[in-house]
Write a structure and sequence with these properties.
Length: 152
C-alpha cells in the first residue's frame, strides 16, 4: 500500500478489524519509510450483473424483481416468504458465481422455475404460464402433462 504522505510503497499492518457490519476490513498501517500511520479499508469487489431482456435492452440485476415474480406466483399458496427470499438469494449467488456479467431473462426465469417446481407445483405452473407466455390451453396442458409425468 502506497503511503499517502511520502509515496513509499511498503507499509506494515498494525491493526486489523471488521468494519461496516463485517462487509469490509479496516487496517491501520505504518509507513516503513517515514513512520507515519494511515488507515485503509479492504472490501470485496463485486461486479455489476446486467440483465439482457427479450427486446435486447439491458438493465441492472435486481433481486427484488425476482422475488416479486415469485411472490405473485405463490399468492394464496402455503409458501413462506422466508423460503422465497432464500430462493432469490440462491439465484443471485448462482448468477454471481457464474462469472457471467450479462445474463438473459430466460436464464433467470429457468432458474426460478427450477426452484419453484420443488417448492410448490401450483406456483411453478403460474410462473411458467407467465414466463413462457402460454398462448392457448394446449400449451398449458402440455406443461401440466410434463409435470405429471415427472411426479410418477
Amino acid at each position: 500500500m502506497k503511503c499517502p504522505y511520502c509515496g513509499y510503497s511498503e507499509s506494515k499492518v498494525i491493526d486489523s478489524r471488521p468494519a461496516d457490519e463485517n462487509s469490509s476490513i479496516r487496517r491501520r498501517r505504518e509507513c516503513l519509510s517515514c513512520g507515519k500511520r494511515f488507515t485503509t479499508y479492504e472490501t470485496v469487489e463485486s461486479l455489476p450483473m446486467v440483465v439482457v431482456k427479450k427486446d435486447g435492452s439491458r438493465q441492472s440485476f435486481d433481486r427484488r424483481k425476482v422475488l416479486g415474480g415469485m411472490i405473485r406466483a405463490c399468492e394464496k399458496r402455503p409458501v413462506p416468504l422466508a423460503e422465497l427470499e432464500k430462493i432469490a438469494e440462491e439465484i443471485e449467488q448462482d448468477l454471481q458465481n457464474s462469472m457471467e456479467r450479462e445474463i438473459s431473462t430466460e436464464a433467470i426465469g429457468e432458474k426460478v422455475m427450477e426452484r419453484l417446481r420443488n417448492v410448490d407445483q401450483v406456483a411453478y405452473v403460474r410462473f411458467a404460464s407467465v414466463y413462457r407466455q402460454f398462448k392457448d390451453i394446449d400449451t398449458f396442458m402440455t406443461e401440466l402433462n410434463k409435470l405429471l409425468a415427472d411426479n410418477r
